[in-house]
Amino acid sequence: MANFNQVVKHFQGYIESQGQGGGIIAGLLGLSVKGSTSLADACCDYSGNIYCSDPINHIILKITESGTIINLAGLSGASGNNTDQTVSCGDARFNYPTGIAVDRNGDIYIADSHNNQIRKISNNKVSLVAGSPTCASGTADGTAARFNCPYGIDVSNSGVIYISDTNNHAIRVIRGSVVSTLAGLKGTPGHLPTWNMTNNWGILGSDARLNLPYGIAVNANGFVFVGDAANHCIKRIDPSGNIRMFSGTGANGRANGISYVCTYQDLKYMDVTKSEELYVIDFNEAGPSRLMVVNREGAAYPIIDWNGILEGQYACAVTCNPAGHLIVIESNYTQYEYSSSSSSQDSSSTSSSTSSSTSSSNSSSSSSTAIKSSSSSSSKSNSSSSSSSNSSSSSSSTAIKSSSSSSSDSSSSSSTSSSSSN
């Protein structure tokens, strides 16, 4: 079994120290997880712990603030399921876990993609939240809901869970134990709304059509942002359930700029900060990825563009810690596993390392996975809020995936005012 406590740490691309531990610091930090080949999504709790899903190894990892990496749940290399039983973390079995989110109570929610289930880790126990106990796919809503390869997940402070039900081309919501469909027609891909039909409120979520929705994030006013991956755009759902185009033309590309001019390649995981800036990984299987910041008007600009640089080529997820530092997940994937057009791709695995400086210090594993923390100078909200979060209680921390949402999951006067700025 892999030793997940072995960490290689490098600062600004250079080797700084090697060994176990090492705190998360301001600036650029890499943690190369030896033995883990495939981190997918990540989230941070109010204590600064990072939780990552590892779909290839079928496990959930925890990285403490001191840098210690722990196999939190699942058995490395062993896929499986626990039907509807509640089991210990050590006895839990996953099958390609991807999206991960943490709520304000510290409970962790996981999109157990190939089991077609939503799972929860709480008090060292793993339980089934929604989905078939037999892992069957389907489209049913209600208390006997079915999913089809859910990939993205986020949760509001009021405990409402939002899911990108990727192969059903829909956005699903869990309130209590009841699942409903927020946007899209389950099982039917498409592209609605488009820019030429977008107005101040968009269209009803039930009239929307999505194509392989992937990343998902909910902000403090209850607005839900969806990476409509195969449509190369971000769509936004307001608290009343209306959906509109938010960013991207719908064409595949790498253009920066205002909302209806910028283009994306393959949108993966995303996070939204307390100041309502959206951070998105624009993934490229065949070339460099980009870490993008998207403002309230939908204009998109790169914070990090790995064009021509091997490092970051497979960046696939972003989250933020309580200090306001961005955590960027880099990993190696096959085209089959993480391309939005995966059904038409072969399953040959990539072999390039995610970081040239990491691989030079970790020659035993060319398929290492890196986690980077970056306090970006272009992110004014993070730099300004970082100092305040260091001196305030953890409950007022900035930008924690799935924990920065307010309890407003229905329309309100504050949501209306936010709509005009979003």
Q: Can you describe this structure?
A:
- This protein is mainly beta.
- Helix content is 7%, strand content 35%.
- The chain contains four helices and 28 strands.
- The strands form six sheets. Strands 2-1-3-28-27-26 form a six-stranded antiparallel beta sheet. It has a five-stranded antiparallel beta sheet with strand order 8-12-11-10-9, with no helix packed on it. A five-stranded antiparallel beta sheet has the order 17-21-20-19-18, with no helix packed on it.
- A hairpin with a 5-residue loop joins β4 and β5.
- The radius of gyration is 19 Å and the shape is globular.
- The N and C termini lie far apart (47 Å).
Secondary structure elements and pairings:
Layout: E1 7-11, E2 14-18, E3 29-33, E4 42-44, E5 50-54, E6 59-63, E7 69-73, E8 87-88, E9 97-102, E10 108-112, E11 117-122, E12 125-131, E13 150-155, E14 161-165, E15 170-175, E16 178-183, E17 203-204, E18 213-218, E19 224-228, E20 233-237, E21 242-247, E22 266-272, E23 278-283, E24 290-294, E25 300-305, E26 315-320, E27 326-330, H1 335-338, H2 356-361, E28 369-374, H3 380-391, H4 413-421
Antiparallel strand pairs: 1-2, 1-3, 3-28, 4-5, 5-6, 6-7, 8-12, 9-10, 10-11, 11-12, 13-14, 14-15, 15-16, 17-21, 18-19, 19-20, 20-21, 22-23, 23-24, 24-25, 26-27, 27-28
Derived structural class: mainly beta
Shape: globular
Q: How many β strands by DSSP?
A: 28
- Termini Cα gap: 47 Å
Strand residues, percent: 25-35%
For the biggest sheet, the summary is: 6 strands, antiparallel
Question: What order do the strands of the largest sheet run in, or round the barrel if closed?
Answer: 2-1-3-28-27-26
What value does the average pLDDT take? 73
Helix percentage range = under 10%
Which consecutive residue ranges, at least 5 long each, have pLDDT under 50? 1-32, 333-422
Q: Measured on Cα atoms, how large is the radius of gyration?
A: 19 Å
Number of helices: 4
